[in-house]
Amino acid sequence: KAGVTQTPRYLIKTRGQQVTLSCSPISGHRSVSWYQQTPGQGLQFLFEYFSETQRNKGNFPGRFSGRQFSNSRSEMNVSTLELGDSALYLCASTPSVGQIASRTGELFFGEGSRLTVL
Amino acid sequence: QQPVQSPQAVILREGEDAVINCSSSKALYSVHWYRQKHGEAPVFLMILLKGGEQKGHEKISASFNEKKQQSSLYLTASQLSYSGTYFCGTEDYSGGGADGLTFGKGTHLIIQP
């Protein structure tokens, strides 16, 4: 079974530009969440999507947005890039929510998209 | 607010034991543990849902003290493959739905032969 696939794996942008990252979840997984990983802050929750609806959003500015398509694939967009947006962006998928007691089930992470902003 | 992990880093010899702690200022609903090797995706280890619950995964086990809002990860007779960064992720009672996990900053574990 294929894992979570993220594209592109590496990218370099300049300040002020925008970027779109893509995530294909494991087949059959309907929930997709996004995390930003930096050395200083660790893993920080960006948002989660389930059945094309954003279920929750972390404490990030409105420049960070996302969406989910009917096939559960998800994209996140960062507009007006800042130097501080340089990070590893991780996508994680889970099976349909509600199957286990925890509100957040086991997360299956992709290898991430490493964004460098110059 | 991020849970606090301790220690930040630890170096062990193969076969030694390690304990990684995760502490939160909030009442916790669950604690999740992940391990990330350099350049790889984080990998799920376990979820602890009830206070006082202890779960195991091979020679890795964990406890969850709901009253103290703390969890500890125990690595017994560590192997070289245990090297990596360990993250705890917490869910608290403040949200009504899926709030995502709030992760600590990680504990770097290095196992030497």
Descriptive notes:
The complex is a heterodimer of chains A (118) and B (113). With 118 residues, chain A is mainly beta. Chain A contains no helices and eleven strands. In chain A, the strands form two sheets. In chain A, strands 2, 4, 5, 6, 9, 10 and 11 form a seven-stranded mixed sheet that branches. Chain A has a four-stranded antiparallel sheet with strand order 1-3-8-7, with no helix packed on it. Chain A starts with a strand and ends with a strand. With 113 residues, chain B is mainly β. Chain B is 0% helix and 55% strand. Chain B contains no helices and eleven strands. The N and C termini of chain B lie far apart (37 Å). Classes of the chains: A mainly beta (118), B mainly beta (113). The A-B interface holds A 3-4, 31, 33, 35, 41-45, 47-48, 50, 55-56, 58, 90, 97, 100-112 and B 2, 29-30, 32, 34, 39-44, 47, 49, 87, 89, 91, 95, 97-106.
Low-pLDDT runs of 5+ residues of chain B are none
C-alpha geometry of chain A: globular
Order of helices and strands of chain B: EEEEEEEEEEE
Which two chains have the most extensive interface, and how many residues on each?
Answer: A-B, 31 and 27 residues
| Major sheet description of chain A | 7 strands, mixed
> What best-fitting shape of chain B do the alpha-carbon axes yield?
globular
Beta percentage of chain B is: over 45%
Q: How many whole angstroms does the radius of gyration of chain B measure?
A: 14 Å
